Amino acid sequence: MNVICKQAIYNREGKVAFYEIFLQDRRAGQYPEGFDPLKATSIAIDVLVEMGPELVGGGKLVFVNVPAIFLEASMFDLLSPKYVGIELVENKRLTNTLMEAIDILIKRGFKFCIDDFGFEKIDYLPLLNKCHFVKVNIKDNPYNQDELKEVISILKSLKKGIIAKNVESKEDYENALQLGFEYFQGIYLSKPVMVKDTRTISFLKSTIIKIYNAIKAKNIKKVVEIIEKDVGVTYKLLRFVNSAYFPKIKEFSNVEDAVVYLGLENVAKFVIVLALSDMFADEEEKKLWKRALFRASLAEKLAEIYSNEVKDKAYLMGLFSLSWEILGQKPAELARAVALDGEIVEAYENRLSLLGFILSLVELLEESGSDETIKKVAKVLEAPPEKIKEVLEVARKESEKFID
């Protein structure tokens, strides 16, 4: 399970000076293996916006990890520089766009920190005159004691705040003090503390349902606006539309063109499933989301046959029908919490309703896609068995396309 954690950074007097907020696999106690750093940044920013950085940091500055090559000034539009700092990681390709974004954010009052600093890393040097703090990994750096003292002396002369990272023992701490570090971070001083489980109802309500409602209203401008606020989703959408899944008409480089090309229906499925599945790194959970997407697609297709006007509701109903297994919350409770349509809530509680009937057929076909079951469902829906076979195959392909 992935959670958002914060870890205190202390000054030389032993008092908390700042916090760092980051994503962590709670079971492994480290960054989730293979998790998209863009999405991790988006989740951390979402949590700060939702909870308020002043609450998360108790009035102290909270640093957020941001992959430097994806930094955009707009990412921080909803956050105050009084409470939020920016820690740049993966500084391998510095561009004019990146430097301009940093300048804009500095003018707005944001403080910058460079992670894993070293003078031997040429890519860092253009950032040095812009940043306010630097972090040095005391466990893994190329310097001996005398060289490290010299590095710290130079950084102090440049008026940079210097943070010792990975302070894991009393010996580490005393050594860092002696070397002249000004700030200290590591499990010897403070272990990461959970701020929020990433699998939150408010995330579903504020992001996913907002996107889906904009798509349902056929408001392309609003859809583009919501997607562009999430740099991780933007990147993945453009990568998706330029992938082998679609005919190579041209290279898409902006969200609006991608949305128009894919069509709102495809964008709805992509964004919703991406937003949900990216919160889960565990393979078993991904398998459950694949099942949920299969149910969503199948429910939509069956609704088109039986009662076309409820197909949008049928999709969401199918998507959240496994919420107990995935989120530990009953479907009807979750549907109420995120303000889904009343007919969807009713479907989970009453299988005699129209959507409830469709959900029962979905479960029947999921459990057994045999010819006999297909014939029974076809008879009930007054449709040819071949049509039911077709929608089953389409649902399977869609679940594979969006999850795999």
Structural notes for this entry:
The structure is a single chain. This protein has 404 residues and is α/β, with parallel strands linked by helices. The protein folds into three domains: 2-197, EAL domain (TIM Barrel, Alpha-Beta Barrel), CATH 3.20.20.450; 199-279, no CATH class; 281-404, no CATH class. It has helices at 37-51, 53-56, 96-107, 125-128, 145-157, 170-179, 201-216, 220-228, 231-241, 255-262, 264-277, 283-306, 311-319, 323-327, 331-337, 342-349, 354-367, 371-381, 385-403; strands spanning 2-11, 16-25, 61-67, 84-89, 111-114, 133-137, 161-165, 183-184, 193-197. Strands 1-2-3-4-5-6-7-8 form an eight-stranded mixed β-barrel. The longest helix has 24 residues, at 283-306. The model has no long low-confidence stretch (mean pLDDT 83). This is HDOD domain-containing protein. Residues 198-387 form the HDOD domain. Residues 1-206 form the EAL domain.
